[in-house]
Amino acid sequence: MTQEDNRLGIVVSGSLSKGIEVRLDGAASVEDVVVGRYVTMEGQRRRFFGMITDVGLGVTDQRLALNPPDVSDPFVAQVLAGTSTYGIFHVTPYLTIGGDVASLLEGPQPVKTVPSHFSAVNLASDQDIELVFGKEDSERFWIGNPLDMETKICLNLEELVKRSNGIFGKSGTGKTFLTRILLCGMLQKSKAVNLVFDMHNEYGWAGTREGGPPVKALKQLFQSKVAIFTLDEANSRRRGVSTDFVVRIGYDEIEPEDMALLRQTLNLTELAIGAVYELHRKFGRDWLQAALDLKDSDETGALLEELKIHESTFQNLKRGLANIRRLPFIEPHAPDDVVNRILDHLDRGINVVLEFGRYRDVTAYVLVANMLTRRIYAQYQARTEKADADGSAKPQPLVITIEEAHKFLNSEVAGQTTFGMIAREMRKYNVTLLVIDQRPSGIDEEVMSQLGTKITCLLDNERDIDSVLAGVSGRSELKAVLAKLSSRQQALIFGHAVPMPVAFQPREYGSAASYSEFSGSALEAGKQAEKDIEELWGDSGAS
Amino acid sequence: MGEVVEASTADFVAQCYELYQLPPLGSLVKTRDQEVELYGVVCNATTAGLEPGRRPIARGRDEATEEAVYQSSPQLMKLLRSEFSVLVAAHRQEGKLYHYLPPKPARIHSFVYQCPPAEVKELSQSLDFLTVLLNARLPVSPEELIAACLRHMGQAQEDRRAFLVAAGKELAVLLGDEPNRLRAVLGRIKP
Ligand SMILES: Nc1ncnc2c1ncn2[C@@H]1O[C@H](COP(=O)(O)OP(=O)(O)O)[C@@H](O)[C@H]1O
Ligand SMILES: [Mg+2]
């Protein structure tokens, strides 16, 4: 595409806070201007990068609107387009780059001013996008393409995993596919290891695809770098998954905090949770076994009296505990310590996906994810502090992926759970979260505001949209972009890891070609070729 | 074709050598004042009796055709004259074309010529004259004149349509707050 083809119009008014109004040239059709696209504005001394956030129509004289000319006549239509009737669109400026050598080296900077009147506005070219987002390289991972463009949008994954991040979107918009793509990226390009709580068995071996055969998941792409743990061995085997470890959880591993998190799911009263803490104080880690062992007897009555637990509260609690006991992977005593097993793998740089098999109900998910995370986090905390004190090695940076994040991070519980703590403490102990949710409004506001980078597919609930965009500059403009995303495989990314927000189409995942690119084998092949050439010709290609 | 019989800075009147040999409305003509060539748009034309204030009397009652009227009174051809007025729109000095008024008006008795197509094309490269035409006080409506002029210029172009669209756009800007006038012109120049 030449510069001429890219030309859209000229800057006619605007402000830094409200954005720039651009008048469309006669030759460009307003119907080709879509929200979410990138444009460059050629100021006198600097270039500006921005995103189209609104499109509208104008007429120079209202009488024209009242008494429309005969635009079925192509001549009249052509004359009026861009003169008496014109397209107008709104650009939110984000970055600018100066024309002199020093600023070119410095790269794009946040905008502090606006382009002067009548600056030319062009659709951003591939080179422009590359200038802003960088090229695919050893740290940058290609996640997708800007809407209607061929260029690659690349993310610096090392930068990304320094903070907790979120992926949002209503059901069926592509969250799972996006997550899988990001996980592949991390496996390829970052030093972080992953622990994935895989509620629907989509990340370990294979994932479902609407209207098509299953897609390969992590283990099939990264044999040696991924271990699959399962809570439901029979189910995993039936799906043909070779698992590395079968998870069993002992009663004594469940702590009051886990129960607090399950309060709503198990229909427990506040008092029942209080009772759990009392029982724990009394019996220590055997509290659950002890509570289950309590029979309807005088002794029990006396005990409850002593612990100040009301009879009805106790009954409420017992019903809840019975639900937990019924979970098939829970046993009085677990044969092996799953936390150690997981840490073993993580320490060796092996990523762990924990499949839930048939146990996809919220109770199982919340209980297991929270319990494991709490204990793994405690280990990380201890080791990091030790490392700080005596200079021993810090644990590998860890990214924990959870779905249905609002169950762990709603305002009622976010203050107490480990997940809430990880989200708030950023990367103090080398652990961050990747949260996936279709109802972000259910997540605590403070947690949302701590997420470094957010990727959101289409959301249609107003409250969800507001919660995702809370605290972002240019909110109302981004809202327009978000609302116009298509209902599948389109997303908006903004925050810490990107220099400016961008609406993009995630990479295609699921074809044979995509697998070889995701697994890094294509990359290896490319590197090998480069090496071969180098050996053949010497270092001449380096200049 | 004729010669200048009345001149002022912005316009001049020329008389035709032959009765009725008038250039078409909106066409481009030129004349010269020594070194300076003046270009203009024909904006009006009249044919009337030589003596001002006296109108010819009707003569055709007993004649079979209109031609016969002139044949029976050959002196008519001498007593009548055709004149046309021209709005000056551009001038050329030392080979260079300027799309605005010349420093001096045309001289009386300068000869007036029709512009050849090549010159029409050259003149139509700038559409600034549209402003002149829009604002002139004329016996014909400016929309009518502009339309005639653009049609005339259009014929000299390789891409007539592109020229008319460009001119239409210029007018749309100039007549931004007068959509009805714009509509009137566009309706008259539609290719
Ligand atoms: N990047 C992608 N590549 C290929 N197909 C995709 C992609 N993103 C979404 N899809 C299609 O959309 C469907 C729904 O995506 P999914 O990630 O399961 O949605 P969600 O997790 O948000 O409910 C998938 O089954 C797949 O067919
Ligand atoms: Mg999903």
Give an overview of the whole structure.
The complex is a heterodimer of chains A (543) and B (191). With 543 residues, chain A is an alpha/beta fold. Chain A folds into three domains: 131 residues; 285 residues, 3-Layer(aba) Sandwich (Rossmann fold), CATH 3.40.50; 75 residues, no CATH class. Helices cover 38% and strands 23% of the residues of chain A. In chain A, strands 9-8-23-22-21-10-20-19-11-18-14-15 form a twelve-stranded mixed β-sheet. In chain A, helix 11 crosses helix 12 and helix 11 crosses helix 14. Chain A is elongated. Chain B is α+β, with helices and mostly antiparallel strands. Chain B has one domain. Helices cover 34% and strands 28% of the residues of chain B. Chain B contains seven helices and seven strands. A six-stranded antiparallel barrel of chain B has the order 1-2-5-4-3-7. In chain B, strand 5 and strand 6 form a beta hairpin. Chain B is globular, with a radius of gyration of 19 Å. Chain B starts with a strand and ends with a helix. The model of chain B has no long low-confidence stretch (mean pLDDT 88). The chains are: A alpha/beta (543), B alpha+beta (191). At the A-B interface, helix 3 of A face helix 6 and helix 7 of B. The site of magnesium ion (MG) has 2 residues of chain A, from helix 7. The site of adenosine-5'-diphosphate has 17 residues of chain A, from helix 7.
Strand-helix topology:
The complex is a heterodimer of chains A (543) and B (191).
Chain A: H1 3-6, E1 7-15, E2 19-24, E3 38-42, E4 46-59, H2 62-66, H3 74-80, E5 85-98, H4 101-106, E6 109-110, E7 120-123, H5 126-133, E8 140-146, E9 153-156, H6 157-160, E10 165-168, H7 175-189, E11 193-198, E12 206-209, E13 212-216, H8 218-221, E14 226-230, H9 233-238, E15 245-246, E16 249-250, H10 256-261, H11 270-283, H12 287-293, H13 298-307, H14 311-325, E17 330-331, H15 338-347, E18 351-355, H16 362-390, E19 398-402, H17 406-409, H18 418-425, E20 431-437, H19 445-450, E21 453-456, H20 462-469, H21 475-483, E22 491-495, E23 502-506, H22 512-518, H23 521-537
Parallel strand pairs in A: 10-20, 10-21, 11-18, 11-19, 14-15, 14-18, 16-17, 19-20
Antiparallel strand pairs in A: 1-2, 1-7, 2-5, 3-4, 3-7, 4-5, 5-6, 8-9, 8-23, 12-13, 21-22, 22-23
Helix pairs in contact in A: 11-12, 11-14
Chain B: E1 2-7, E2 11-16, E3 28-33, E4 36-49, H1 66-72, H2 76-79, E5 80-93, E6 96-98, E7 111-114, H3 117-123, H4 129-135, H5 142-154, H6 160-174, H7 179-189
Antiparallel strand pairs in B: 1-2, 1-7, 2-5, 3-4, 3-7, 4-5, 5-6
Helix pairs in contact in B: 4-5, 5-7, 6-7
